[in-house]
Amino acid sequence: MTREESMTHELGLRRALAPSLVLLALFIAGATTAMAQNQCSHTPIKVAIREGRVTRDHYYCVIRPSGGVTQNEARNVAVRQRFRVGSENRQGVLASLEMRDEFSQVTTKLRQAGVTSLARLWVAGSKRSGCPVRSHWSWDTGIGLNYNAWAPGEPNNNGKDCRDSRETSMCMWLDNGQYADISPNARLGLVVEFP
User: Fold this and answer.
1) In this structure, what DSSP letter does residue 102 have?
2) What pTM, to 2 d.p., does this model score?
3) Closest Cα to residue 15, out of 4, 7, 26, 3?
4) Beta-carbon neighbour count of residue 143 at 10 Å?
5) Cα(90)–Cα(126) distance, rounded to whole angstroms?
6) Terminus-to-terminus CA distance in the chain, angstroms?
7) Dist CA 12 CA 30 (whole Å)
């Protein structure tokens, strides 16, 4: 093969591969962006949680997926998160703020960390059954909601009859540190807990 034939052959290969390389570059860029959007937007904050007679540090962070995620998607995003504490590699879960002190510390420390730009964030609370009375709500851990941090008028099922229940999930307004009921299909950011 002459030098001219070799250059013509190489040019033909480049032209043939160019669209595939462009698509590969776009795929990699998109995957990298998607991964970055589903990661903590800040270093997880530490909160000391009293568990019986023992105090254990839990860590929390906020994730802001582009376009938001449903509550079930939020659970899936949360369990894919890992955070190393010393030699321990902790797995994330959608946050269950089971005690008032935990709730107060988390909301205060997230605000202090500058996480205030999202109106609503998923937490791991949902309605067990019945009308949207406050006693029918629990965390994914199975523990009932035992303190009142509902926003005024919440839970309200969006003004619908409780037999037509659509707002069966719980979100948190970080700016005022209160809960609201919401459709599980709403698209929000989320709070991840590393217990």
Assistant:
1) H
2) 0.75
3) 7
4) 11
5) 24
6) 66
7) 28
